[in-house]
């Protein structure tokens, strides 16, 4: 009984002394100061990293996406280092031995190693993604896992543990790097815009092709994403009411779909301007009396 009282007294006694609260308040204030300073330092360092890569790649258009990827990576690593220093400093303020924690990390690591396998896999995969240049920030990619598409869109952030992808419908998807299976990068090679244009069978198809060919010269001048002048490939199909022409053009990487939309709009405007007819559905009137007479 006396031992229990002694233990309780040793626990309660510090709470009755004003010095305890003064020390606690002082430590809390210092913690807030450390966090604020770390946040300010990170802001300056991140700005410095951005400026460094901008100077290094000034005028080199081909390296801009790669620079954005490396900026994200370096900022990610610096953030981990700064916050680790802040954490160890805070622990030392409360009398917790950081050296002891680091020394026991090997023993604790064995206990949690199996649980941390996923995190380690994510980090290793992140290094391979970045240094093998599988994709960069700004690339349009499709990510599959086990044959199923898990994300498709524009890469916004590449980190050591995860990657953020902005989908075409506006959602921001965060994927652990280790969960990525097949990666399709649409921004590496030039794209191709292919559209099918229906024309009425009443039109002179040779004349339509000549009108389109002359007009396509201005499209490449007006739209930066076309690398080559669009051209009429030929007749794709013929039916009772329409002739379908196939038109294609080479675009910059990842802009094939955008190029196709531009071609459709411009060709529609041209057809209205030149009064080129497009197919119209034919309406047949059903006469039941005619069937009865037959």
TrEMBL record:
GO terms for molecular function: mechanosensitive monoatomic ion channel activity. The chain crosses the membrane at residues 24-46, 67-90, 96-116. It is found in: Cell membrane. It is a multi-pass membrane protein. The keyword tRNA processing does not apply. One of its GO terms (cellular component) is plasma membrane. Residues 118-187 form the Mechanosensitive ion channel MscS domain. May play a role in resistance to osmotic downshock. This is Mechanosensitive ion channel protein MscS.
């Amino acid at each position: 009984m006396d031992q229990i009282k002694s233990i309780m007294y040793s626990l309660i006694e510090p709470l009755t002394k004003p010095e305890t609260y003064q020390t606690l308040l002082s430590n809390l204030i210092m913690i807030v100061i450390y966090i604020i300073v770390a946040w300010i330092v990170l802001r300056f360092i991140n700005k410095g990293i951005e400026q460094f890569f901008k100077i290094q790649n000034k005028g080199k258009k081909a390296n801009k996406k790669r620079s954005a990827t490396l900026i994200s990576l370096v900022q990610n690593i610096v953030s981990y280092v700064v916050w680790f220093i802040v954490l160890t400093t805070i622990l030392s303020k409360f009398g917790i031995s950081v050296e002891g924690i680091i020394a026991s990390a090997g023993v604790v690591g064995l206990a949690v190693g199996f649980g941390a396998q996923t995190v380690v896999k994510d980090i290793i995969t992140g290094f391979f993604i970045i240094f093998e240049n599988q994709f960069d920030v700004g690339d349009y990619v499709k990510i599959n896992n086990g044959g199923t598409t898990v994300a498709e869109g524009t890469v916004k952030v590449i980190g050591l543990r995860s990657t953020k992808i902005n989908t075409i419908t506006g959602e921001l998807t965060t994927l652990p790097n280790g969960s990525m299976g097949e990666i399709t990068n649409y921004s590496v090679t030039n794209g191709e815009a292919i559209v099918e244009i229906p024309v009425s069978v009443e039109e002179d198809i040779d004349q339509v092709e000549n009108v389109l060919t002359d007009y396509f010269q201005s499209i490449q001048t007006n739209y930066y994403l076309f690398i080559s002048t669009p051209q009429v490939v030929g007749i794709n199909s013929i039916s009772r009411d329409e002739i379908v022409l196939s038109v294609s053009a080479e675009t910059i990487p990842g802009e094939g779909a955008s190029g196709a939309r531009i071609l459709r709009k411009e060709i529609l405007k041209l057809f209205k301007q030149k009064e080129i007819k497009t197919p119209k559905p034919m309406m047949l009137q059903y006469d039941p009396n005619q069937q009865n007479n037959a």
